[in-house]
Amino acid sequence: MSGQYVVYTFYRVDPTWRRLPVEERIAGKDAFADVVDDWAGRVAGLRAYSTAGIRPDCDFFLWKITERYADLGRLGADLNATPLAGWLETPYAYLATTKASQYTQARRPRRVVPRDAPYLVVYPFVKVRPWYALPAEERQRAMDEHIAIGADFATITNHTTYSFGIDDQEFMTAFECEEPADFMHLMLTLRESEASAYTERDTPIFVGRACGIR
User: Of the N and C termini of the chain, which has fewer Cβ atoms inside 10 Å?
Assistant: First the structure.
């Protein structure tokens, strides 16, 4: 079944870029933003989030959603052709795709439709291998509890996607929320759930503030 490809690309600006003349920096940013604006109308989703002043290893990231894998390479090439790209590092990049969850009644891949919340929390997720050795009914029971806890946090929207076989993590988890502290309380509650005991890795965690690319 057809689904979507979802990518999170993180950027860090070379500090020496800030010493360039203001006009040169503005022109470089405008060229980069022009590419993002153009592609925003050609893919299912393309949004920018700032991490400036929060994390030392990245300044902003792009959330990309498309039905066509080839779009990701073309978009990347167009961004790399801008003057600003010469001053950008990409410390993190994550690829995932959508599929129907085995723990719900869904039979079609779940579509990722951003709701334009002010914050997006993103992190890669890996389970320990013993999780997959559990009987199906035990995993279903644990996930039913997990899903029920999430439903209690109505202001948080979950966009889980799958990376098995196409990237280094198993899942990419992304949560839109009104306040980062709201998500902290959700995670605090989930830590006591049965399924959390089977978590191998759920870092690094990024909190992005939604913003226009310019």
Answer: N
CA distance 101 to 112: 13
What residues form DSSP beta bridges with 92?
10
**Strand-pair partners of 5:** 66, 97
Residue 169 DSSP one-character state: S
Token pair, residue 28, equals 């470089």
Does residue 1 carry a pLDDT above 60? no
Cα–Cα distance, 159 to 113 (Å, whole number):
8
Which pair of structure tokens corresponds to residue 133?
């050795």
Asked if residues 171 and 97 have their Cβ atoms less than 8 Å apart, the reply is no
pLDDT digits (tens, 9 = 90+) for 107-132: 677 889 999 999 999 999 999 999 99
The angle subtended at Cα 76 by Cα 161 and Cα 13, nearest 5°, is 95
Task: Give pLDDT tens digits for 192-202.
Answer: 999 999 999 99
Q: What contacts 214, CB < 8 A, 6 or more positions away?
A: 29, 30, 33
C-beta of residue 46 within 8 angstroms of C-beta of residue 36: yes
Residue 147 contacts residue 158 (beta carbons within 8 Å): no
Contact 49, 210 (CB under 8 A): yes
